[in-house]
Amino acid sequence: MRVLDFFQGISLGFQTIYLQPLNLLYCFVGVFIGTLVGVLPGIGPLGATAILLPVTFHVPPLASIIMLAGIYYGAQYGGSTTSILVNIPGEVASIVTCFDGHQMALQGRAGPALGIAAFCSFIAGTVGVLILMVVAYPLASLALKFGPPEYFSLMVLGMFILVYLAQKSLIKGIVMVVVGLVLGFVGMDIVTGQVRFTLNLDELLQGLGVVPMVIGLFGITEVLENLEITIKRSLFKPHIEGLLPSIKDWAEAKWAIARGTIVGCFLGILPGGGAVLASFVSYTIEKKASRHPEKFGKGAIEGVAGPEAANNAAATTNFIPLLTLGIPTNALMAMLFAGLLIHGITPGPLMLKERPDVFWGVIASMYTGNMMLLVLNIPLIWIWIKITKIPFRFLGPMIILFCVIGVYSINNSVFDLWIMIVFGVGGYILRKADYEPAPLILAHVLGPRLEQALRQSLLISDGSFAIFLSRPIALASFALGAFLVVLSFSRYLKKKREMF
Amino acid sequence: MGFSAIIFFASLKMEFGTPRDPGPGFMPLLSSVLLFSLSLVVLITGINPPVRNEDKRSLVGWENLKAPAVLVIALLGYTSLLEIFGYLAATFLLMFIMFFMDEPKRWFTSIAMAFVLTSLSFFVFYKLLGVPLPVGIFKIMR
Questions:
Q1: Angle at alpha carbon of residue A187, lines to A446 and A337, rounded to 5°
Q2: From the CA of A232, how many Å to the nearest CA of chain B?
Q3: What's CA A232's distance to the chain center, in Å?
Q4: Could you tell me which residue, A166 or B5, shows the higher pLDDT?
Q5: DSSP code string of A114-178
Q6: Model confidence at A462, in pLDDT bands (50, 70, 90)?
Q7: What pLDDT, on the 0 to 100 scale, is given for residue A329?
Q8: Which residues on chain A are in Cβ contact (under 8 Å) with B101?
Q9: Could you give the CA distance from residue B142 to residue B139 in angstroms, rounded to a whole number?
């Protein structure tokens, strides 16, 4: 890629954002909703994206992805607010911020905690966007040389990594992947046109809609779980004086910000990686790197700065595999992938050539969105403090309302509502049984492409599976996958030995 | 395991093909076999779960099921009645049930909140955003 092409792309991106007020508006809406969702426990960025996905079908594709992307990285900002003030993480990646952030608030240092979280997020998010810009073109050029065996192996690796990182059981994670694949077979076979598993229902000829599924699994299930438990909120009334960290705070946090940014940028690119993993890894690293690890859990500013930088950096670099390779690496990226497909845009290496306005527009929107988030989270912090007090008995009905409207409006079909309910109840039962739904969604979205890549690979190789061993990238991907399986199995055996 | 068995037998009716030219039944059949095997492993490992003496709660955690169960039944009823009664009536009932479930004594507040939320959502989504919602018995709202 020439330097001139690079600057032309950036220029195109900023023109797309700033000369089209609609895109700017959707960027603001996305980051605002993202912050809101991050602040509110009970609905996370996955659920919010699932619920708002149908709304974006009625807007241009660039505005759609700008808004959905804004929800994702916006939620990383908002999640830290409730973690620090109320000791309840607004979303999963902010769990770690509770450990030290709330302690800082109890010590009368809520302002610096909130301030450093916001500034770290901004710095790391901006670095993440820079990396996205620099890496995208070379990666996309490389991806153009990929064939079906490479795509098949990368998709399999992505699912393996997601399963390996599953918080609970590896076997249950693989079960979810296979179930997701099977659900992806419903409908018409791409190659032969044969109808599969439709139960003679015309509505299933196009397959199981991903939107009702995700809204059921992440929207309805969340509400069902929240109805079951009562979230007890801290009675602590925060007194916030000044949101700007002092020079001493910056001095203590600077290396944590740097390390967190690097960790987040790296883990965000990996298939299966994401903001959650990045924040936990960063906290562990900061504790190990600190000269005073005993301070962690008692209000160490590095315990806020590092994870906050990591989760925002990862939330940005998560887009690299999606936009350049066309491979979503987690459930939220899978939803964005599905959303772009519905708009007729296939994410991947050709998107940079065929739709540079979308690619560069998203990048420019991330710069803009990060700046908007700094404003939303520093001077306007009072709005979010008020919002943390909204009880779930008001939020729950509103979430259900958005779910049913969102699902019904896709096809004006009650059938989609039935799908939503089935997956809502199914998701609730799965979570009770310690099955995570994220691998299911990723596998469902990737399934048809995975099957197509496998069948094409076997056609090329005349039926020989050795093709996956003869291609370097495919071989490396499978080798890494096998290594992860061995690692997980040894971890499992170690646990068993400790029990006895 | 039941699910994988269903998929397995349904896949047998499709052409499996050959490794050189996989048919539509190729992946589903292999997936169902894998799923069955994994489910068997989960079942076997689940027969003797680790017992923690101090933890007397159900391993699955089925406490406080009443509210989720009521919501699921309400959603099923809502979906059945949506196109008959229309969005306004059906949604009002659903919202009322959700608010009432939380505070049964304050039924008037529940009615008021359900009315406000339903009307507001109808106005925003149907009138302002043009989202097609079933009108049902309230055809005069068109």
A1: 30
A2: 16
A3: 27
A4: B5
A5: HHHHHHHHHHHHHHHHHHHHHHHHHHHHHHTT--HHHHHHHHHHHHHHHHHT-SS-HHHHHHHHH
A6: confident
A7: 78
A8: 227
A9: 6
